[in-house]
Design a protein that fits this description.
- With 98 residues, this protein is mostly beta strands.
- It is built from one helix and six strands.
- The chain has a four-stranded antiparallel β-sheet with strand order 1-2-3-4, covered by helices on one side. Strands 5-6 form a two-stranded antiparallel ribbon.
- The model has no long low-confidence stretch (mean pLDDT 78).
């Protein structure tokens, strides 16, 4: 995803606590932040990119707070596939909320 950038143009960081394990990649050349969040107790994952318009000095703080404050909503029991138990909808949407 970021192979077009030089490593010097990227800041990589991690967030690990009792709820989530996450990582972020911040592009110094733009306002994009790539992230991956694993919600530990539910074993659900979310990954994506966001565009933020904050000063470069605040991007790491913003990325960490974004990951730490992210919560997953409970999965309704009727949303699971009877064949494999998956909750995936293949619609490109997440049940997460910020």
């Amino acid at each position: 995803m970021y192979n077009v950038f030089n490593k010097e143009d990227l800041t990589v960081g991690y967030v690990n606590n009792d709820r989530v394990n996450g990582s972020y990649i911040i592009s110094k050349r733009g306002n994009s932040v790539g992230f991956i969040i694993l919600f530990i107790s539910k074993l659900e994952m979310l990954m994506g990119d966001i565009i933020i318009n904050v000063p470069e000095s605040d991007r790491i703080t913003y990325a960490k707070e974004f990951i730490e404050s992210f919560t997953f909503e409970p999965t309704p029991p009727d949303s699971q596939s009877p064949s494999d138990g998956s909750t995936r909808t293949y619609g490109g949407r997440t049940r997460g909320s910020k």
